[in-house]
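An example makes the point: we let one protein speak, the chain in one-letter code, the fold tokenised, and here it is:
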Amino acid sequence: MNKIKKFVFSEYFFKSATLLISLFALSISIHSCKNSNKSLENSTKSLKIAERENEPSLKIIQNLWTNQPFYELVNESNSKLDKIPSPSYLMFIPSKVYFVNNDGSRLSNLVLSPVSYDAITEQLVENTTKGSIVKSVLPKSFFAKKGIRDVIHGEFINVEDRFKIYVDTLPFLVIISDIEFQYNNKVNNVVLLSTPLENVEITEDDLNNIKEYTRDNAEKLEVKLTEENSNSYKIAQEKIETVVKEIFNSDKKANENDLKILGGKEGGYDFILKKINKQISYLDPMEAYDEQINQKESK
């Protein structure tokens, strides 16, 4: 009888031990499978990151807050281009024209003052296609610090009893560059819009619209440096204030050519000023103010 009990116990112990070993093995297998999936997921992510890092990443970096202001075309990726590109640039000083109604509501409009390409005092081409590639040096008149303290605030311009206007000029550049570059024996093209805040790609249509805006308004708005110690942003401010006063002079009726600086042309340059304005200030404080006013009036 004892032998039978021992046999039954031994058989039960053997089965239990076998079951525990099987469960333990299954647990290890599941854990290994999870680790394997996680490793595969991490490998996939790493591969995607590596692929992105291997592609050229071109940007225009502005550094206007030094005694020798400059901007440069850089390739931030680890990949090399087949050859050094030769980018073309359009440079603008951005200003905002604000319209203040008698009820306190405000509207704003972006104006871009073209900067003569002659303003570039030196262009340095590096012997590399990674990091800094082409550096464009500007005169001291473009020196500015980032921040609201350097914004040039204009005086109110009264337009009869209807509304008031004032102009603010922002102390930085909007740079647009059409860049053709060669990578892996293929010719590529990218159009970049650069501000100190970010770089974004824009379309060929956007580029053509801004070129048309420049052609129409360069005569009135182009910033040309006349003195070594002049301030480029003040020159832009004064030019725009002069044009605005001419447009809204009560003795003179504004025509289509006058309003082109505000995008007032048939087709409106496909609203390119509005598109660029979003890259300069994500939220226009005046538009936010108007929204608050409208919400109060609707209650």
Q: What stands out?
A: Residues 2-17, 282-294 have pLDDT under 50 and may be disordered. The CA atoms of residues 63 and 70 lie 5 Å apart. The two ends are 94 Å apart (CA to CA).
